[in-house]
């Protein structure tokens, strides 16, 4: 890079070329202009880089707080709809946060929600005990680089406020307000054998629960993997009867984005036939 005494005539003086040019007159003013211009652009970019990074972080914070966020499925409670198991690569899902600002969750929706207190007794914080590291983790969480320090769970809505849910009818199906619901996504379940193991036999089927009337403003949530999901049935003895307040809902699971072989939409069938 030339010093400032040489930049000044190049940028603004036309009559000083003969005094600083070579004796042969083979100077190339255009090349000097290009060199100076390139240097200015580089310095300008370096000055703007922190601003660009800040804008990107702010946009990431706004998008993940108000629009959508990616979550990792860590367990098998939603198999086969969502893949997650110990030692394997779980699905990563996009959870959108806008729709439920205009309507409440509906039966059949797959939701991410913050576990109520009784659901979170085994939850352990992932944050560091070091104040500085904890602060960095919290900052990273705000922009989506670190997972939130909360017990976020994913289940499917089976019944909503005011509805009564129980299991089972003679075919082992869940009843909502006395009517069986259609659950094509369930492929794993506890045994239910008419005449051998039902809700009426001495050896009662583990499927059986309820009836439970869902409090207004709450949801009855269950995993698709019925034989391996600590859901509303498991917590039915708590103060909320195992239900989840709508205010705890983070958003609706819409897409599987990773791994590539499982990319696709997440269905929300009309399980109650309304």
Notes on the structure:
The protein contains four helices and twelve strands. The longest helix is centred in the N-terminal third of the chain and has 38 residues, at 29-66. The strands form two sheets. Strands 1, 2, 3, 4, 9, 10, 11 and 12 form an eight-stranded antiparallel β-sheet that branches. It has a four-stranded antiparallel β-sheet with strand order 7-6-5-8, with no helix packed on it. By secondary structure, the protein is of the alpha+beta class. It starts with a helix and ends in a 9-residue tail after the last strand. The protein has helices at 4-12, 17-20, 29-66, 131-142; strands at 68-72, 92-96, 110-114, 152-160, 164-167, 174-176, 179-180, 209-213, 218-222, 244-245, 249-258, 264-265. Helix content is 23%, strand content 21%.
Helix content: 10-25%
How big a fraction of the residues is strand?
15-25%
Rounded average pLDDT: 81
Given as residue ranges, the uncertain stretches (5+ residues, pLDDT < 50) are: 1-25
Q: Tell me the major beta sheet.
A: 8 strands, antiparallel
**Termini Cα gap:** 74 Å
**Which radius of gyration do the C-alpha atoms yield?**
30 Å
Count of helix runs: 4
Helix/strand-derived category reads alpha+beta
**Envelope shape:** elongated
Instruction: Please count the beta strands (DSSP E, at least 2 residues each).
Output: 12
| Run of helices and strands | HHHEEEHEEEEEEEEE
């Amino acid at each position: 890079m030339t010093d400032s005494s040489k930049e000044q005539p190049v940028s603004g003086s036309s009559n000083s070329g003969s005094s600083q040019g070579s004796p042969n007159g083979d100077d190339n003013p255009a090349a000097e202009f290009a060199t100076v211009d390139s240097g200015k652009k580089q310095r300008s970019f370096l000055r703007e880089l922190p601003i660009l990074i800040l804008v990107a972080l702010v946009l990431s914070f706004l998008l993940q707080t108000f629009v959508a966020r990616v979550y990792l499925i860590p367990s098998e409670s939603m198999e086969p709809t969502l893949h997650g198991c110990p030692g394997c690569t779980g699905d990563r899902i996009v959870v959108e946060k806008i729709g439920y600002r205009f309507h409440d969750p509906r039966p059949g929706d797959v939701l991410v929600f913050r576990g109520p207190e009784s659901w979170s007794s085994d939850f352990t914080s992932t944050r560091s005990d070091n104040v500085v590291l904890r602060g960095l983790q919290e900052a990273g969480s705000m922009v989506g680089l670190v997972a939130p320090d909360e017990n976020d769970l994913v289940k499917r809505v089976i019944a909503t406020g005011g509805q009564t849910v129980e299991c089972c009818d003679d075919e082992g199906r869940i009843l909502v307000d006395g009517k069986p619901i259609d659950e094509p996504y369930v492929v794993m379940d506890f045994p239910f054998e008419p005449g051998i193991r039902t809700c009426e036999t001495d050896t009662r089927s583990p499927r059986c629960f309820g009836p439970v009337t869902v409090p207004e403003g709450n949801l009855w949530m269950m995993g698709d993997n019925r034989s391996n999901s600590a859901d509303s049935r498991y917590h039915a003895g708590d103060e909320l009867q195992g239900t989840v307040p709508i205010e705890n809902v983070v958003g609706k699971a819409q897409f599987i984005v990773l791994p590539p072989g499982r990319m696709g939409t997440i269905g929300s069938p009309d399980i109650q036939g309304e």
